[in-house]
Amino acid sequence: MSQATTDAPEGILLVDKPQGITSHDVVAKMRRIFHIKKVGHAGTLDPMATGLLLILIGKATKASQYLMSMDKEYTGTIRLGQITDSQDADGEMLEERDVPELSREDILAEMKTFMGDQYQTPPMFSAKKINGQKLYKLARQGKTVEREPRVIHISSFELTDFVLPELSFLVGTSKGAYVRTIAHDLGERFGCGGHLNELRRTAVGQFRVEKSSTIGSLETMSPSSLRKKLIPIIQAVPSHAL
Protein backbone atom coordinates (compact mmCIF):
# COMPACT_ATOMS: atom_id res chain seq x y z
CA MET A 1 0.00 0.00 0.00
CA SER A 2 1.41 3.37 -0.97
CA GLN A 3 2.06 6.19 1.53
CA ALA A 4 -0.57 8.37 -0.17
CA THR A 5 -3.22 5.67 0.22
CA THR A 6 -2.30 5.05 3.86
CA ASP A 7 -2.49 8.76 4.64
CA ALA A 8 -5.71 9.41 2.75
CA PRO A 9 -8.17 11.09 5.15
CA GLU A 10 -11.51 9.47 5.80
CA GLY A 11 -14.45 10.11 8.09
CA ILE A 12 -17.42 12.43 8.60
CA LEU A 13 -16.95 16.19 8.57
CA LEU A 14 -19.67 18.43 10.01
CA VAL A 15 -20.09 21.53 7.85
CA ASP A 16 -22.31 24.57 8.41
CA LYS A 17 -23.62 25.21 4.90
CA PRO A 18 -24.20 28.89 4.12
CA GLN A 19 -27.18 30.21 2.18
CA GLY A 20 -27.04 30.48 -1.59
CA ILE A 21 -24.99 27.42 -2.49
CA THR A 22 -25.96 23.80 -3.08
CA SER A 23 -24.86 20.76 -1.11
CA HIS A 24 -22.96 19.66 -4.22
CA ASP A 25 -21.11 23.01 -4.22
CA VAL A 26 -19.84 22.19 -0.71
CA VAL A 27 -18.63 18.78 -1.91
CA ALA A 28 -16.83 20.43 -4.85
CA LYS A 29 -15.18 22.94 -2.51
CA MET A 30 -13.93 20.13 -0.29
CA ARG A 31 -12.41 18.36 -3.28
CA ARG A 32 -10.71 21.57 -4.41
CA ILE A 33 -9.46 22.75 -1.01
CA PHE A 34 -8.04 19.43 0.19
CA HIS A 35 -7.37 17.71 -3.15
CA ILE A 36 -9.54 14.73 -2.16
CA LYS A 37 -11.41 12.87 -4.91
CA LYS A 38 -13.72 10.66 -2.83
CA VAL A 39 -16.13 13.13 -1.20
CA GLY A 40 -19.91 12.96 -0.83
CA HIS A 41 -22.65 14.15 1.48
CA ALA A 42 -25.54 12.62 3.42
CA GLY A 43 -28.74 14.60 3.00
CA THR A 44 -29.26 17.51 0.62
CA LEU A 45 -29.97 21.02 1.85
CA ASP A 46 -31.70 23.41 -0.56
CA PRO A 47 -29.67 26.51 -1.60
CA MET A 48 -31.84 28.79 0.58
CA ALA A 49 -31.27 26.59 3.66
CA THR A 50 -28.32 26.83 6.03
CA GLY A 51 -26.96 24.52 8.67
CA LEU A 52 -25.63 21.06 9.24
CA LEU A 53 -24.39 19.10 6.24
CA LEU A 54 -22.62 15.77 6.75
CA ILE A 55 -19.65 15.62 4.37
CA LEU A 56 -18.34 12.09 3.82
CA ILE A 57 -14.70 11.56 2.97
CA GLY A 58 -13.04 8.38 1.72
CA LYS A 59 -14.63 5.12 2.86
CA ALA A 60 -17.21 7.12 4.83
CA THR A 61 -19.10 7.60 1.54
CA LYS A 62 -20.23 3.96 1.92
CA ALA A 63 -22.32 5.00 4.92
CA SER A 64 -24.34 7.59 2.98
CA GLN A 65 -27.65 5.69 2.98
CA TYR A 66 -27.46 4.91 6.70
CA LEU A 67 -26.66 8.51 7.64
CA MET A 68 -29.40 9.88 5.39
CA SER A 69 -31.93 7.70 7.23
CA MET A 70 -31.30 9.53 10.51
CA ASP A 71 -33.88 11.92 11.97
CA LYS A 72 -33.37 15.65 11.37
CA GLU A 73 -34.05 18.81 13.38
CA TYR A 74 -34.65 22.25 11.87
CA THR A 75 -35.47 25.79 12.90
CA GLY A 76 -37.02 28.30 10.55
CA THR A 77 -39.75 30.79 9.74
CA ILE A 78 -43.01 30.51 7.83
CA ARG A 79 -44.51 33.47 5.97
CA LEU A 80 -48.30 33.19 6.00
CA GLY A 81 -50.48 34.72 3.30
CA GLN A 82 -48.09 34.13 0.39
CA ILE A 83 -48.09 30.98 -1.75
CA THR A 84 -45.12 30.20 -4.01
CA ASP A 85 -44.65 27.51 -6.65
CA SER A 86 -41.72 25.94 -4.77
CA GLN A 87 -43.33 26.31 -1.32
CA ASP A 88 -40.35 28.41 -0.19
CA ALA A 89 -38.93 31.92 -0.56
CA ASP A 90 -36.93 31.01 -3.68
CA GLY A 91 -40.07 30.34 -5.70
CA GLU A 92 -42.34 32.50 -7.83
CA MET A 93 -45.30 34.10 -6.08
CA LEU A 94 -48.55 32.43 -7.11
CA GLU A 95 -51.08 34.03 -4.79
CA GLU A 96 -51.41 36.41 -1.85
CA ARG A 97 -54.19 36.12 0.69
CA ASP A 98 -55.22 37.95 3.84
CA VAL A 99 -53.90 36.42 7.04
CA PRO A 100 -56.58 35.94 9.71
CA GLU A 101 -56.10 37.09 13.30
CA LEU A 102 -54.49 34.08 14.95
CA SER A 103 -53.76 33.59 18.62
CA ARG A 104 -50.93 31.49 19.97
CA GLU A 105 -53.53 28.89 20.92
CA ASP A 106 -54.91 28.83 17.35
CA ILE A 107 -51.45 28.23 15.93
CA LEU A 108 -50.46 25.61 18.50
CA ALA A 109 -53.70 23.70 17.95
CA GLU A 110 -53.00 23.33 14.21
CA MET A 111 -49.32 22.53 14.72
CA LYS A 112 -50.30 19.73 17.08
CA THR A 113 -52.21 17.99 14.28
CA PHE A 114 -48.94 17.52 12.36
CA MET A 115 -47.40 15.33 15.06
CA GLY A 116 -46.75 11.64 14.47
CA ASP A 117 -47.01 9.56 11.29
CA GLN A 118 -48.73 11.06 8.26
CA TYR A 119 -48.78 11.07 4.47
CA GLN A 120 -46.95 13.89 2.73
CA THR A 121 -47.00 14.59 -1.00
CA PRO A 122 -43.51 15.56 -2.26
CA PRO A 123 -43.44 19.05 -3.85
CA MET A 124 -42.92 19.41 -7.59
CA PHE A 125 -39.78 21.44 -6.90
CA SER A 126 -37.81 18.54 -5.45
CA ALA A 127 -35.03 16.17 -6.49
CA LYS A 128 -37.32 13.16 -6.22
CA LYS A 129 -37.42 11.14 -9.45
CA ILE A 130 -40.52 9.89 -11.22
CA ASN A 131 -39.94 7.69 -14.28
CA GLY A 132 -36.28 8.63 -14.18
CA GLN A 133 -36.88 12.38 -14.26
CA LYS A 134 -36.24 14.77 -11.40
CA LEU A 135 -39.41 16.59 -10.42
CA TYR A 136 -37.83 20.04 -10.30
CA LYS A 137 -36.77 19.73 -13.95
CA LEU A 138 -40.37 19.00 -14.93
CA ALA A 139 -41.59 21.85 -12.72
CA ARG A 140 -39.26 24.31 -14.48
CA GLN A 141 -40.95 23.27 -17.74
CA GLY A 142 -44.29 24.18 -16.22
CA LYS A 143 -45.32 20.54 -15.87
CA THR A 144 -47.09 18.96 -12.92
CA VAL A 145 -47.23 15.18 -12.49
CA GLU A 146 -48.96 12.89 -10.03
CA ARG A 147 -46.82 12.29 -6.93
CA GLU A 148 -47.50 9.42 -4.60
CA PRO A 149 -47.80 10.51 -0.95
CA ARG A 150 -45.34 8.85 1.40
CA VAL A 151 -45.34 8.27 5.12
CA ILE A 152 -43.23 10.64 7.20
CA HIS A 153 -42.95 11.14 10.95
CA ILE A 154 -42.87 14.46 12.80
CA SER A 155 -41.52 14.00 16.32
CA SER A 156 -41.73 17.65 17.40
CA PHE A 157 -43.24 20.85 16.03
CA GLU A 158 -42.84 23.84 18.33
CA LEU A 159 -43.81 27.49 17.94
CA THR A 160 -40.80 29.49 19.12
CA ASP A 161 -42.11 32.97 18.24
CA PHE A 162 -44.71 34.68 16.09
CA VAL A 163 -45.37 38.17 14.81
CA LEU A 164 -47.97 37.78 12.10
CA PRO A 165 -47.62 37.16 9.23
CA GLU A 166 -44.48 35.24 10.30
CA LEU A 167 -44.14 32.22 12.57
CA SER A 168 -40.85 30.87 13.95
CA PHE A 169 -40.62 27.14 14.64
CA LEU A 170 -38.51 24.15 15.59
CA VAL A 171 -39.37 20.82 13.96
CA GLY A 172 -38.05 17.27 14.25
CA THR A 173 -38.65 15.03 11.23
CA SER A 174 -37.91 11.61 9.80
CA LYS A 175 -36.05 10.95 6.59
CA GLY A 176 -37.87 12.17 3.49
CA ALA A 177 -39.92 14.93 5.08
CA TYR A 178 -40.07 18.26 3.25
CA VAL A 179 -40.19 21.14 5.74
CA ARG A 180 -41.39 23.55 3.04
CA THR A 181 -44.37 21.27 2.45
CA ILE A 182 -45.09 21.36 6.18
CA ALA A 183 -45.00 25.18 5.96
CA HIS A 184 -47.28 25.17 2.91
CA ASP A 185 -49.73 22.73 4.50
CA LEU A 186 -49.87 24.68 7.76
CA GLY A 187 -50.73 27.83 5.83
CA GLU A 188 -53.54 25.98 4.07
CA ARG A 189 -54.94 24.88 7.45
CA PHE A 190 -55.31 28.57 8.33
CA GLY A 191 -56.96 29.28 4.97
CA CYS A 192 -54.37 31.86 3.94
CA GLY A 193 -51.58 29.71 2.55
CA GLY A 194 -47.93 30.21 3.34
CA HIS A 195 -44.38 29.36 2.40
CA LEU A 196 -41.10 28.52 4.11
CA ASN A 197 -39.16 31.77 4.50
CA GLU A 198 -36.03 30.56 6.29
CA LEU A 199 -34.63 27.14 7.19
CA ARG A 200 -31.66 26.00 9.23
CA ARG A 201 -30.80 22.36 9.92
CA THR A 202 -29.59 22.10 13.50
CA ALA A 203 -29.15 18.34 13.89
CA VAL A 204 -28.84 15.04 12.01
CA GLY A 205 -29.15 12.11 14.39
CA GLN A 206 -26.64 12.69 17.20
CA PHE A 207 -24.69 15.28 15.21
CA ARG A 208 -25.33 18.97 15.93
CA VAL A 209 -24.54 22.13 13.97
CA GLU A 210 -22.75 23.66 16.97
CA LYS A 211 -19.88 21.22 16.32
CA SER A 212 -19.60 22.06 12.62
CA SER A 213 -17.01 24.03 10.64
CA THR A 214 -17.79 26.96 8.37
CA ILE A 215 -16.73 27.04 4.73
CA GLY A 216 -14.48 30.01 5.55
CA SER A 217 -12.61 28.08 8.24
CA LEU A 218 -12.17 25.09 5.94
CA GLU A 219 -10.60 27.25 3.23
CA THR A 220 -7.71 28.11 5.58
CA MET A 221 -7.53 24.76 7.37
CA SER A 222 -4.42 22.60 7.12
CA PRO A 223 -4.72 18.90 6.20
CA SER A 224 -3.65 17.94 9.73
CA SER A 225 -6.35 20.17 11.24
CA LEU A 226 -8.88 18.57 8.91
CA ARG A 227 -7.96 15.11 10.18
CA LYS A 228 -8.61 16.23 13.75
CA LYS A 229 -12.10 17.40 12.71
CA LEU A 230 -13.04 14.11 11.05
CA ILE A 231 -15.33 11.76 12.97
CA PRO A 232 -14.25 8.12 12.45
CA ILE A 233 -16.98 6.26 10.61
CA ILE A 234 -16.89 3.41 13.16
CA GLN A 235 -18.06 5.88 15.85
CA ALA A 236 -21.14 6.87 13.89
CA VAL A 237 -22.23 3.84 11.91
CA PRO A 238 -22.67 0.18 12.98
CA SER A 239 -20.39 -2.19 11.08
CA HIS A 240 -23.32 -3.94 9.37
CA ALA A 241 -24.27 -0.65 7.65
CA LEU A 242 -20.89 -0.31 5.93
Name a few traits of the molecule.
242 residues; alpha+beta; Pseudouridine synthase; two-stranded antiparallel sheet; 33% strand; globular
Number of domains: 2
> Tell me, what's the shape?
globular
Q: Would you tell me the overall average pLDDT? A: 91
- Name the CATH class of the largest domain: Alpha Beta
CATH architecture of the largest domain: 2-Layer Sandwich
Write down the Rg. 19 Å
Largest sheet: 10 strands, mixed
What is the name of the CATH superfamily of the largest domain? Answer: Pseudouridine synthase
Please explain how this structure is put together:
This protein has helices at 3-7, 23-34, 64-68, 104-112, 135-140, 179-189, 215-219, 223-229, 233-236; strands at 11-17, 39-41, 50-57, 72-80, 82-84, 93-96, 116-120, 129-130, 133-134, 150-163, 166-173, 194-204, 207-208, 213-214. It has two domains: 3-69 and 206-241, Pseudouridine synthase (2-Layer Sandwich); 72-204, Pseudouridine synthase (2-Layer Sandwich). It starts with a helix and ends in a 6-residue tail after the last helix. With 242 residues, it is of the alpha+beta class. The strands form three sheets. Strands 1, 2, 3, 4, 7, 10, 11, 12, 13 and 14 form a ten-stranded mixed β-sheet that branches. It has a two-stranded antiparallel ribbon with strand order 5-6. A two-stranded antiparallel sheet has the order 8-9. A hairpin with an 8-residue loop joins β2 and β3 (50-57). The protein is 26% helix and 33% strand.
